[in-house]
Amino acid sequence: MKMNQNWWKILTVLLLLYTCIAGFLFTTPRLPILNESIRNLYFHVPMWFGMILILTASVVYSVLYLRNQKPIEDIRASQAAQVGVFWGILGLLTGMIWAHYTWGKAWSNDVKQTSSAIALLIYLAYFILRDTIKDEQKKAGISAVYNIYAYAAMIPLLFILPRLTDSLHPGNGGNPGFNAYDLDSNMRLVFYPAILAWTLLGWWIFTIKVRYIKVKNYLISKN
Amino acid sequence: MLVKQIWTLLWKDIRIEWKSPQTFNALLLYILNVVMICYLGFGLRVGQIGGLTWVVLFWIMILFAATNAITKSFLQESDKRNLYYYTLANPLAVLIAKLIYNAFILIVVGGVGLVFYVLMLGNPILDMLLFSNVFVLGCISIANTLTMISAIASKTQQSLGMTVVLGFPIIIPTFLMLLKASKNALDGLAWTTTQDELMTLLAINMIVIIVSLVLFPYLWRL
Prior knowledge:
The structure holds two protein chains of two kinds.
Chain A: H1 3-25, H2 44-68, H3 71-102, H4 111-132, H5 136-164, H6 185-222
Chain B: H1 2-19, H2 22-42, H3 51-71, H4 79-88, H5 91-121, H6 128-153, H7 159-186, H8 191-219
Helix pairs in contact in B: 1-5, 2-3, 2-5, 3-5, 3-6, 3-7, 5-6, 6-7, 6-8, 7-8
């Protein structure tokens, strides 16, 4: 293993271990309703960060594809989108388990829940679009265009709409939350490394998926 | 130069529609049918259907009419003739002409639909002036968002299905804003309360139009 290239993988493992151990054992502020479930901050929220960052990477690869028309960029864009959607589903599930115990229902039509579900619908449509086009070059170009268009349309969904309506989420609409006054320095010590850890794990999965496709294409071209 | 091309293309589309108004008539009949089905389905006398249901039903009707109308915008003529237009004129002029034409046709068809809808199902809207403004802005927003989607979908085999699958998740923010603004008009609230929604709609439109203009040059060749 080349250390100068792969040091970040060791860092990922260490950070994940740290996130799990510190996330479950460190002290947290005692807040009403949230209680111990506040620890979900180290798992649920970083998964959303990871999703946004990896989907952003996917869009960057789509832009690169449109600029230089190299097939590898299209493979990267589609694989990053897959990892991003996987992270999104994990974020949704961890959120739903948490909501089951704090809000009483797994799905309560909260604005952030619905907008994340819609964001996932957009990317599922992206995969369907890729499946319907047979010609490789056409598929790459059209899906790159849709990827960028969908990402631009997702911005109002994820960043503007939740701010216009009250959400049940901690920190919104007068609910006790982690931000501003409540996120004490102890939680930050775990929260920021957790974001890095989950994002890096996603990036690691992404590189393996890309390599898998490359090897597969190589083997197909040899036979 | 660009403006002249846009105008020529727009005028061409309008003249085609004027000479053989099949699309327009089909759309009109579609809207009338939907209104009839809503009327009979709810089994109501005029004014029975509650305010919010009225608004949601109306916008869903417009959304489906828009999908029907706009899917055709890049399929109406053959692939080869579309390519011919792209070489004759600036491809961006083609896109902008389609954007304007789709918004125009949607406002006309939707306007007729609105009149019939009000006749059949009654009018619970208190602030009709605000509602008609929201209606025009909504038609323009829906047309803007779906035009680029229909350009993408026209490159695949099943265009109509793809327009819905690709377009509906993207149009939801616009749709929610329209519902909120219409709800304000329904309750006759002061115009200042609707400012937020209208500004968000304008912002979404700006994003969509700019991204469409940037991306279309990459799309038409494929």
